[in-house]
User: Fold this.
Amino acid sequence: MILPNQTKVIYIWGNPLDFSLSPFFQEHCAILAGNRILYKIFRGSAEEFKLLLKSERCIGANVTIPHKINALSLCDELSEKAKKAGSVNTIFKAKGKIIGDNTDGAGLGKWLKIKGADFERCEILGNGGSARSIAAALAEEKCRITIFGRTEKGWEKNFGVFRNLSEWKDNTLTISTLPFEVKGRNIVTIGYSSGNIPIDATMMLAFQGWLGAQRWFKKTISAEKFAEITKLHAKAQSNRQLILNLANKNEI
Assistant:
């Protein structure tokens, strides 16, 4: 019998996390594969997070904004994907070491392949941490990449060409990492908020999560099942927000 204080823990470190789907679909998928875990939200400092990672109960973590770059220094080793992306979104343990990985770009790339997207050319809106990991993954597909942002940060030249955000036109496949909605015929939006979770964001999360689960567990469910469960929780959260909005409107 596994006691509550012996259950293995996976953390997600970031802020804000009010709309995160990860605690719901990760626990659900883990249980289906026979892995009993707790998936906990953490909003504290880097020093506190490092202590949690070192604990015996912790088997890994996810990292999201604004800590993906800071997480690099918390790891004993980095995967090649994390090095190229310059950020960490998945942490696991191996032989007593804390290993940093990045599944951002690979998760999105898997979804775009399923969609049948053309990888010959791609434009990325925004040049933060998520944009860099996506650019690194697309570069592996021999894609010609243009990154649009307000100010060049220097990493863009490693994967493609930088242009000012004001120059962007909706002419080809575009991945938007911006914190606001951008409309267009060729847009793949990976940002989301409570009650507004686009299918592209949902599926990117699903495949990122599946790749992360492969680092944490010996056994996982299929990527297709992972995607199905993530969509289920995304719909549940959207429905919950709709009910809350309706309830607020009907208050006297």
